[in-house]
Each structure stands twice: as C-alpha cells, then as structure tokens.
Amino acid sequence: MGFWDLLTVRWSKILLLTQEHILLVFAAIIVAVCLGVALGIVITYYRPAARVALYICQILMTVPSLAMVGLLLPFFGIGFKTGVVALILYSLLPIVRNTYTGIEEINPAVLEAARGMGMQEATILRRIKLPLALPVIMAGIRTAVVMVVGIAAIASYVGAGGLGEFIFRGISQWNKQVVLLGAICISVLAIVFDFLFKYLENRFRAV
Fold first, then answer.
1. pLDDT reading at 1 higher than 70
2. pLDDT mean over 122-148
C-alpha cells in the first residue's frame, strides 16, 4: 500500500489521534504556563533562587524522554497522566526563563516611577510588569508548545494516545509508511502551532 493510499484509508484514525495529541499538548501547556509564569515571577523577587530554579528546569530538559516517562510510571501509572506530567516538566524551562527575563529586562526607571506614584507592588506587577513582559513570555510559551508537540509522540509509548502511536506501531511492524505518516502528521501539527503562536506573539508586541 502506497503512502497516499494509507493516508486515505486511515483518515479517521488520523483525526482521532490528532485530537488526542492536541488534548495532550494543551493539558500540559495550560498547567505549565500557570506553574512556569508563577515561578518566573517569584524568582524575580528572590534572585538567589533564580539560578537554582533555572538550573533544575535545565536538568529536567536534559533527561531523555523515554527515561522521563519511565521514571514517572511508578507514580502515575500507564496512560494519559504520565504523558501530561512528563510534558509539563519539559515545558517549564522556556516559560520560566522567559518570564524571568521579560520582567528583569523592564527599564528600572519605569518601575521607580510607578513606586513614586504610590503604586503597590501587586499593582505594579499586574499593570506594568506583566504587560511589558508579555511578548517575551509568549515567545517562551511558543517555544514550549512547538517542543512539546514533538515530545508528545513519546507519550504514546505509555498509552497516553496521540500521533506517536503511528510511529511506535510502524516500528513494531517494520512498516516505514506508518512511521512516515506519524512523523509527517506531528511535523504539520508543530508547524501549525508555531504559526498560530507566532501570530499571537506579534499581536502582543504590537499592543
């Protein structure tokens, strides 16, 4: 069976696995954004902790993906939860780093002027720091999303679903067409997300 015939025959399966893949990515990114942005904000107030937090996030990024899901299996079991937790851990570095960098790069004179006007720190964070840092934060989120779309293929290895199922099934069956199908679908999905988040990033920079 040729590649295009395979694409036609398995179209419904492709749609199902694409939905699972997107759900996996968004579940991980939503949690990672909440944790990563919060941690990035906190370490701007406790700068000695910034090096430690960023170092830990870097270590998590260096752990091979198969090893990561293997380490998480005893705690979360086989299935969706293990895949999501692994993707959350991989997503943290670009989000935390960009949040920290975006806030740290704000002109100190702007912050001093806000404090001179009597603004409380919570108000400064909400009205000045986060809006000014938002384009940089969005760049970090964009990097995390595109990266996680690819890494999510490994989640299929522990039964979390997604397009990686085509890759692992093709390898087990020695079917390069099925492997190619999974790889192309994941690549297309990553490109689509990259364009979408690039558009959002540009919109925030234009504001």
1. no
2. 92
Give the other-Cβ count within 10 Å of 135's Cβ.
Answer: 18
Place of tokens 């990561």: 68
Residue 101 φ/ψ, nearest 5 degrees = -65, -45
Using CA atoms, how far apart are residues 19 and 24, in angstroms rounded to an integer? Answer: 9
CB 43 within 8 A of CB 104: no
- Rounded distance between C-alpha atoms, residue 189 and residue 151, angstroms: 12
The closest alpha carbon to 57, from 22, 95, 23, 83, belongs to 95
Per mean pLDDT, which range of 94-98, 139-143, 147-151, 153-157 is the poorest? 153-157
* CB-count burial class (<10 Å; 0-12, 13-18, 19+) for 94: buried
The vertex-140 CA angle with 147 and 72, nearest 5°, equals: 50
> How high does pLDDT run on average in the chain?
88
- As a CATH number, domain 3-206 is 1.10.3720.10
